Structure formats: structure tokens, C-alpha cells
Amino acid sequence: MSFINKQGYWISENGWRMCDTAELDYTAVPGTSFNLGVRKGAPNIILKAAIARLHREVEPMITSQIGCYTGTNSMPNSNHNSATAFDYNWNKHPYQEWGTWGANRAKVDRIVADFRGILEFGGNWTSPRDEMHFELHFAEGHAGTEQLATDLRNGLWGIWAPGQAPEPGAPSTPIPDGYLQIGSEGDQVRKLQVGMNKVFPNYRAMPLDEDGIFGPMTEAAVTEFQQRSLIGADGIVGPETKARLATYGIVLDGASAPTSPPAVPPAFVYPSTDEMTKQLWEQAFGPQAKGWPDLFGKLADGSRGKYTVEAIADLHADAGL
Prior knowledge:
Elements: E1 24-25, E2 38-39, H1 42-58, E3 66-67, E4 85-88, H2 105-114, E5 119-121, E6 133-136, H3 143-153, H4 187-199, H5 216-229, H6 239-246, H7 273-285, H8 293-296, H9 309-318
Antiparallel strand pairs: 1-2, 3-4, 4-6, 5-6
GO molecular function: peptidase activity
Protein name: Lysin A
Domain Peptidoglycan binding-like: 186-245
């Protein structure tokens, strides 16, 4: 057997078929001698690459505290039941505890960001909070997931094949001075988070943790703000985004608070009662109430007015219509 119904489910929460141990790949995590059973194919390539980077760049793995596949689970449709999730050093990062990565949290966020949205981190959840947990975000067959696995096989980050390894602890793209993005930390990030929680509480990523660490949830909130503001949506807080945030009272370094409120489009103003009465009267009785001889009656010579309904009727009659 391989794909099965497990605890009443054929599909796990992230959209992968439930499986048994026949569907696991027990090869070692790259760069280590630790053999771990992970779902064959793209999940094996991607999740073991994530473990390898956490081990190499953040904190060494404790092999007795690394797990992927479960035969049964307290959450019946758990992604562990489809072998598409792993827990990392679970005693160091207990379930429902916050801040367990300490100063290393920014490194974890950088790694997660490098995985193109395909790797989801339980530390970004609010309920439940699960800082040991990492999983595939998209359902089975997702093209981006397969492409990332292909790139990893071909040497991305030098994990599965020779290639350029990321510098430990460094963001993939240098952060320009004054910009805020994944990997940024400090008071400016905290000010951004506090301000966005206050002004935009209904955004999908809210509430943000006000921890001064620019992680994926802060990036998601910034992206939504940019989309709603009709500016470039890249999740990076640069000069244009800072200027737009300042109009909402979120004033970061390099931006200035507006000196006057934004212009309000003029509202429609209804005419006065006298003006409306005049307009209705003239519609009924013609300009200056002189009547509509050219519209409703014949002229002095017996012909009909140029634009009258009756004239059109005469034309139809003459044409035999």
C-alpha cells in the first residue's frame, strides 16, 4: 500500500494524499548522516533542504527531536500524517510557546522567505503557536513546489548538488539603507508593527507580533497595504511605502508627517428648492414657461415641429410603416 485513508481522511490539511511508510524516502538529510523518512518526491527534497539549512545556519539539529511522518495524530488531518511537515528540536521550541528562537528568529525568517512561500512556519501562526513546526504550504501538484524541488536538485543553495550556498545568517538580497524587509530588526520595525495593528486591524495577517522582527506576517501586512494603496506590492517598506504610511500617522525614519489632511473629493450638491422647482416647471411648460409649440402642437402654417413625437409619427405614416 501507499496512499490510504487515515483517521477518516484521504487528504491532509495542506492538500496531500495520506500515505503509509511505503511512500517515505529514508535518505539522509544532506550534509549529515541522519536518516529521516519524508514523503517521496518534492516534499523529501524541499523539507530536507530546510532541515539542512536550519542545522547549518541557525542551530544544530538534535536528531532525537526531529520528526516528520506520523502513523496517527491527535489532529486527524495533520500534515504529519501525509509526511509533508516536520518538527525541529521540539524540546527547545515547545508547542504554544512564543520567542523560543530568541535572537535566531530573524535567521529562521530569512530561510523561510527563501523558500518562495512554499515552506510555512508555525511560528507565524497565532493559534496555535507552533515554533517547532514547518510544512509545505501548497497542495500536491503545485507547479511552484515542483519547480523549487527541481532547482534544489540542480544545485540551489548547494544542498543537493554543488552550487552556491547562502551565507549563514545573511539575507539573500542585501537590505538597502533605510528599507525594511524580511530580516530587518529593531525599533523601526516595531513602530511599523504597532502602527499597522492600530490602523489596519482587519488585515488578513493581523494582529502582528510587536517584536521588532520583520517576518513573513509583517511582510504580508505590508503587501496588503501596498495593494490597497495601488503602489508596487513587494512587501518591502521603501520611500514610497513610507510616504503612504505617513498619511495614516505611521511615520518612520525618512518620512514626514503630512502637514494638512488629504484632499477630500467634493461631494455632490443638490440644487436649492427654488432651482429644482424652476427646472421642473421649464421641463413641463418650456423655457420661461412659454410653452412647447414646436414640440406638442402644429405651427401657425399647419406644419408640425421639427422634433415632435407627432412629426415622427407623420413620417412613419408617409412611409407606410
